[in-house]
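so my prof wants the structure for this chain in the tokens format not the other one, which i didnt know existed until like an hour ago. anyway here's the sequence
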Amino acid sequence: MCLGVPMRIEEINGYVARCSARGIERTVSLFLMQHENLQPGDLVMVHVGNAIQKMSEEEARSAWDIYDEMLAAEDAILDEIDSRHA
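here's what i got, hopefully its the right format
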């Protein structure tokens, strides 16, 4: 399964941006969004190294909340599996 990750644009150089999310920085292509007026501080959905959609703060926060729930559920399942084998 592939997921898009909400990231904040920190710096733009042509069609390339330095983006960050939760302490992680990535170089992201803006080529697919060349029709948008993107600025540092904007939030974008990043999928396989490409910005694919501009996002609001609320949309980004909602996505991160869902990802946090998924990770917590995965941790609970792994803990249950570990406890069965202990």
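also thought this was worth mentioning. Residues 5-84 form a domain with the SH3 type barrels. fold (CATH 2.30.30.140).
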